[in-house]
Amino acid sequence: MTLSEELQWRGFVNQTTLDDIEVLNDGDMTFYWGVDPSGPGMTIGHLAVAMMIKMFIDTGHDAILLVGGATGVIGDPDGKKQERDLKTLEEIEANKQAIAAQYRRIFDGLSFDIVDNYDWFKDVNYLDFLREVGKNMSMTQLLDREFVQSRVGEGGSGISYAEFSYSLIQGYDFLHLLRERGATLQVAGADQWGNSLAGVELIRKLEGKSAHVYTVPLIIDPASGKKFGKSEGNAVWLDPQLTTPYDFYQFWLNTDDESVDALLKIYTSITPEEHSQLMEEFEDNPADRAAQKYLAYEVTKLIHGQGVAQSVQTVSEVLFGDKDFQSLESNQVLGFKDVLPVVVSDNIVDALVESDLAQSKSEARRFIEQNAVSINGESVETLDSSLEDFADVHGHQLLRRGKNSFAIIER
Question: Cα torsion at 144, 86, 98, 45 (round to 10°)?
Fold first, then answer.
């Protein structure tokens, strides 16, 4: 399968300035993709673009991965109804480091370079920038942007000169990377189409050369109808401190039956043959959720490593499947501590509170009276019950409140 055919099969074809995406099959382009440090790392929305970029690199294209230290100082206004709050320079630096680390994780074993646009913007003279870039950027083109019209029109919240100028900064990135690195293609999410075209126009006017943009469709959360992204309030982060590996795995495991087919193609490296076999198995027995299990394991393995993926898989099988906590080996029990809250306690009520499974001791007692608490799968029958009434499993006990709230008690 050629790259263009695989892009079609996986659903990675959206808007592009290329006349025919079959030119990508030659594998001889230098391209770049950028992520602004406006958040503390990347989300699964970014991951969709990254999965496509892995295909570009595998085909032989040269990848430049940009952390937007300069653009992050302003923040992309596209799609935003009001002015962004500016990040501190310390926040931006921390976010840049997180994004670079995630680049290295996702693209481990592949060839790529990481650059920071702050490195070339920090020495740019303001008057020179206006003369070279501002003079060649049409105000009409900027004012035609839908988000600008919504911000400056009647009832709009307004837009600052800084955010209005964001397209110029991103356009200059493309111009600089063409001049210094020979980049002729920018890859981006669909929401970056307008910003990306600014670079194409600058390159045409100042260098007399052709450059192109290739965008990936935005991935929509079927539950909310919103895009997967940090600004939409439904972010699933790649950073384990922001979205735990357990929650990350559960997100994919809970994919609805209608979406799993498409998400498998986007977020895993499954082949068409493997995909057909898996979907046939899934359709024969949807209740077993084979497709969701494959998706959850593969994406978790990519982002958090095989060991963590195996741990959260085991945790899920115990919490929601047929596997018994008391049957686990020592290393499997220890894996629970990587993905669930851990408390050291000699009292069931205290353990519920310390693990945040209850907000107070009175609420913890009420949960017990309602038969909503179990240890190692056995119900806590009365307030007189103690932890000694339940077996230790390699020095640990599994505490559960309700259907989906869990913690590990370390004895």
Answer: -40
Among residues 313, 181, 212, 238, the alpha carbon closest in space to that of 51 is found at 238
Superfamily of domain 342-410: RNA-binding S4 domain (3.10.290.10)
pLDDT tens for 73-117 read 887 766 566 676 788 889 999 999 999 999 999 999 999 999 999
CB 392: neighbour CB atoms within 10 A?
15
pLDDT tens digits, one per residue of 128-172 = 999 999 999 887 777 777 767 777 766 667 778 788 788 899 999
Compute, in degrees rounded to 10, the torsion defined by CA atoms 214, 266, 46, 290: 180
353's CB contacts (< 8 A; 6+ apart) are: 359, 360, 361, 364
Q: Please list the residues that pair with 87 across neighbouring strands.
A: none
Tell which CATH classification among 2.40.50.100, 1.10.240.10, 1.10.1660.10, 3.40.190.10 matches the domain 245-323.
1.10.240.10
Q: Which amino acid is at 374?
A: S
Contact between 70 and 118 (Cβ < 8 Å) = yes
CB atoms within 10 A of CB 215: 21
| Total-model pTM | 0.86
Tokens representing 344 are 């050291």
What are the backbone angles phi and psi of residue 379, rounded to the nearest 5°?
-65, 140
CB-count exposure of residue 206 (10 Å: 0-12, 13-18, 19+) = middle
CB 367 within 8 A of CB 373: yes
